[in-house]
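hey so i finally got around to running the thing on that chain from the lab meeting. sorry it took forever, my laptop kept dying and i had to restart like 3 times. anyway pasting the input first so we r on the same page abt which one it is
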Amino acid sequence: MSMRPSAPSPSPSAASQLLASTRTGPPSLSATSNSATTSSIAPRITAAFTGRPSPPPGCAVMRRAMSARLVRRFRRWVIAAIAIGALLFLAGSIWAGFDEVHAALAGFSWGWMLPVLLLTLVNYGLRFGKWHYLLGRLGVSMPLRDDLWNFAAGLAMVISPGKAGELLKPYVVRARTGTPMARTIPALVTERLTDGIAMLILAGLSVTTYAADKVHYLTIPGALVIGGLAVLSSERLSLAILGGLEKLPVIGGVAHKIEEMIRAMRTCVAPVPLIATVVISIVAWGAECVGYWMVFRGLGVDASLDVSVFLYAFATVAGGAMPGGLGVAEGALAGGAVTLLPGLADADAVAAALLIRVATLWFGVLLGAVALFRVSAMLGGDLDLDRSADPEPSPGAAPDTDRSSPP
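ok and heres what got predicted. didnt touch it at all, straight out
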């Protein structure tokens, strides 16, 4: 069945958009040029994923127009995220009291904010190293500077609906190296998977120091992670599951690409890279956990480090399915702090949640926005992507039919 690219909507998941659009034929040039506000990024990502031809790249003006749509889409996401964040702050202030929250923020020692931001940068730096390492394990040679811009732009994409915008990272890798997205998406999945594993480990280690009887709450998510790793590590089991799913119409058309992704995923979760990336993730996210503890210190709250680590790790995992964790993470941080820190005022809990989210999520979005404009220029023709991608592609890379067009 043929489907036409539709207006962007936050309702479909990234996976459904990606798989459903694999049967989409290339839209006409006129449709591309007339759809500045209604064209979706899914058809171009699908073309890169499946190897199907995408619309002719056209002139540099058209490429810049398509890149501008990506920036406009990001602006809409930012506006929506800021609106949600403002509503959350309003709700927290109503719950804790406007005057009390204002007093808590006014009493914060802002000298603590610099080390908190530096710890956030440590997190980003280590995670970038992990991402670049995973690409290397997959045989992808991405210029370090380009990949740094690419990773930084991905920090802004966490606020996209369903975090679908994070597919920008494998797309940019394809534009620069010619490597099909089916080979690099597993690096993105592994990056997020090891983040989750690290958070579960941090939460488990910290909770044992003050509430060992609560460790069983981590059993279910831990079992899910172990089960997922077992499936991905077993070629026979993963391909058997895929064999059953490929009978579904939406899966059958891209089963061969999913198989390629599974094989690449097994490279990423082999013992050596898995252990290395989990250790990197523990240190990276541990830095932000310490940053949360420093926020309490800045508020004059004598919070223990182990409780702070558990609260931040738990809240991050809980909000993992939401764009930027908005709503869930803030609620878990504020509510959990009041519950686990005896005598903590509601206003201090709300202020701590607000400050750490500004120093992590919104600081990352700001850095990502700057990098996104750079990446947008790269994909829009301000750099000669065709020439830079001309060198021999990675082994096994599919012919690159549309390197110059941004998603």
